[in-house]
Amino acid sequence: MSETSNISLLNQISEPADLRKLKKEDLQQLSNELREFIIDILSNNSGHFGASLGVIELTVALHYVFNTPYDQIVWDVGHQAYGHKILTGRRDVFHTNRKYKGISGFPKRSESEYDAFGVGHSSTSISAALGMAVAAAKKNEDRQVIAIIGDGALTAGLAFEGLNNAGIENTNLLVILNDNKMAIDPNVGALKEYLLDITTSPAYNKLKDDVWNLLGKLSKLGPRTRSLVQQLESGLKSTILKQSNMFEALNFRYFGPVDGHDINHLTQVLNDLKNISGPKLLHCLTTKGKGFKQAELNQTIFHAPGKFNKQTGEILKVKYDKAQPPLYQEVFGKTILELAEKNDKIIGITPAMPTGSSLNIMMEKMPDRAFDVGIAEQHAVTFSAGLATQGMQPFCNIYSTFMQRAYDMVIHDVALQNLDVVFCLDRGGLVGDDGATHHGAFDLAYLRVIPNITISAPMDEEEMRNLMYTAQLGAKGPFSIRYPRGRGVMVDWKKPFKELPVGKGRLISKGDDIAILSIGHAGNLVKEAVDKLKKQNIRVTHYDMRFLKPIDETILHKVAGKFKQLITVEDGTVTGGLGSAVLEFFSDKGYSMPVIRLGIPDKFIDHGTQAELYKECGFDPESIYNLTLKLLRSKRLSHAG
Fold it and tell me: Edge-to-edge, what's the strand order for the sheet holding 540-544?
């Protein structure tokens, strides 16, 4: 509760129009209440914590100054937008955030008219906002369009493409750089150092204060005076910084840096910027996790901490009665270090996800052989290709959903040249609460059409270790290993390495009633169903295909020659994945065997737990069990007839 009032302001806000009725001196209290509301909810309902706390004042100021939803706000990265959601009519349902059938953890156009653009992947805001601003100009609409870009999103190439184009369009576009020096892990690269130079230059900041005072009066001055002030500002800044401001070199008017937690100054600045035409960039300095001490001190951990004690900041971990299998990402992190200790050609690369991918394990031990390249998936892939041309063995670790952004580089820079690059695709399949923007639904299908590439997916941790070992033995060409979010199935997983025959699957169980082919971790869902069927005296032949490309043709000939019915199971889109590959093989070889494909259907799947989404898509153990029984009953009835 604010020091100035015992009356809750947040409870009076059903939409931004209510917010704009408040007095300016009430905005800090509202910000405090909004921050506390998010802390209360997220302490019991896991979500993206630190990023949204860092933009509370900015969120309040934006909706106070601009006439949303007519004026349009694009959030980038979208996990900064919790405060925005709460202020735009979703306060009473915010407790359903990221839950099955609840509201999305990211802005979503179908969810609210205030969500101007659907976001989940980073660095899209400037391009999208420019499109909106150009459209507004074409329609003669006096509409303000604002792109908020932060949490490391400015490091991606798309952001620079947007800036480059926006600089030559005389549109009413405002870009707000939320500079908190963080993505999930600390920001890296030359841009980080450049922004630091701007923010720590006393002479430059003194100049900015003086020039700001002039610019705040521009609405009262004639056009000739405005031009002179702009020329003076540009010349002085170039002299003091000894170089042109990067943003102004791209024809943006640069303002800042300003304190992103000073609500009164923010509202003044934003009001002034409304009256300045053309592309503008406001540089805001914020603290990720602002207002929650533990989140400020441990920004990576509190990016998305899960449930925690809001008084002490202690993260509440689930207690288990027995040892648990490791996370697949931990298997990757520990295995690549083990391999790198034996193979000095191995290099690790990740685009801004060292903690999320567990490449940080190698970074700590071998900092000269593991690279965080920032939010730049395209660069990560081509950087890996360059390393491979010189005989190095890069392991390029990218989340499946983010690899989509580097598709051309996989084809043009790696596969076309048949380079030895290992792609470790984390979060393959349905990831759970992050929803449609983050599901790794498509990699099996989109990689399968590329020549030269090997596509694999381990069913368990031991198989993952062996696939990583096999991939680095040399002369393998592009080699993809995809694995899911979450835990594996083996406690005792760290066993001696074993080379796996490329393109060969393995038999998991043998029976005469029906055959099931699976790939990847989804094989464990099949195994659970098969074990239950055994209790009904039903024997199933289950193959873990292990490789999608090259596919094990020996297995396919066997099942086609023995069985009348076949089920394929994959945690990926059924369009173009394992099931499609099997059907293509059968068609090419003249088999007419029916194939029932289980996997992610041809639609975008919303958020929920992985178990809930497996069930929705029909490849959870219970669904596999019920389908098998149904097919066998149908077969028996057919024979009886």
Answer: 506-509, 540-544, 514-519, 566-573, 595-600
Instruction: Tell me how far the alpha carbon of residue 69 is from its chain's centroid.
Output: 26
From the list 378, 408, 412, the residue with the least C-alpha distance to 396 is 378
When the candidates are 3.20.20.100, 3.30.565.10, 3.40.50.1970, 3.40.50.970, the CATH number that belongs to 328-482 is 3.40.50.970
Angle ∠(227,231,236) on CA atoms, nearest 5? 150
DSSP secondary-structure letter at 216? T
Q: Decide: helix, strand or coil at residue 171.
A: coil
| Identity of residue 461 | E
Token pair belonging to 170: 């005389």
Q: What three-state secondary structure class fits 347?
A: strand
Residue with tokens 């059924």: 574
Q: Is 376 helix (H, G, I), strand (E, B) or coil?
A: coil
Which single residue is written with the structure tokens 């931004």? 16
| Residues in a beta bridge with 372 | 350
pLDDT digits (tens, 9 = 90+) for 421-439: 999 999 999 999 999 999 9
Q: Is the pLDDT of residue 516 over 90?
A: yes
Q: How far apart are CA 56 and CA 540, in angstroms?
A: 56
Q: List, in order, residues 6 or more apart from 620 with CB less than 8 Å away.
A: 525, 611, 614
Nearest alpha-carbon partner for 95 in 84, 87, 103: 103
Helix axes 610-617, 621-640, angle to 10 degrees: 20
Report cis status (omega within 30 of 0) of the bond before 257: yes
Q: Is 10-303 in CATH node 3.40.50.970?
A: yes
Instruction: Tell me how far apart the alpha carbons of residues 411 and 403 are, in angstroms, rounded to a whole number.
Output: 12
DSSP 201: -
Average of per-residue pLDDT values in the chain: 89
Q: What is the pLDDT of residue 192?
A: 61
Side-chain-facing half-sphere of 363: CA atoms under 13 Å = 15
Look at the block and give the residue holding tokens 């390249």.
373
pTM for the whole structure: 0.89
Expressed in percent and rounded to 5, the helix, strand and coil fractions of the chain are 45, 15, 40
Is 28:263 a contact under the CB 8 Å cutoff? yes
Helices (H), 45-143: 50-54, 56-65, 82-85, 125-138
pLDDT tens track for 33-90: 999 999 999 988 888 888 889 999 999 999 999 999 999 999 998 889 999 999 999 9
Task: Output the six-digit token pair for 31.
Answer: 């910000």
Return the amino acid letter for 257. Answer: P
Q: Show Cβ contacts of residue 505 under 8 Å, excluding neighbours closer than 6 positions.
A: 517, 543, 544, 545, 546, 547, 552, 555
Could you write out the DSSP letters of every residue in 472-514? TTS---SEEEE--SSB-S-SS------PPPTT--EEEE--SSE
From-to residues of CATH 3.40.50.970 in the chain: 10-303, 328-482
Beginning with the edge strand found earlier in the chain, give each strand of the sheet holding 145-150 in spatial order: 72-76, 145-150, 173-179, 280-285, 253-259
Segment (H or E) for 575: none
SS (H, E, C) 224-259: HHHHHHHHHHHHHHHHHHCCCCHHHHCCCEEEEEEE
Domain 506-640 CATH (choose: 3.40.50.1100, 1.20.1250.20, 3.40.50.920, 2.40.10.10): 3.40.50.920
Q: For residue 586, what are the contacts with CB-CB under 8 A and spacing of at least 6?
A: 556, 560, 592, 593, 595
| Active site residues per annotation | 288, 377, 405
For residue 1, what pLDDT is reported? 40
Is the CB of residue 290 less than 8 Å from the CB of residue 51?
A: no
Alpha-carbon gap, residue 379 to 228, rounded angstroms: 41
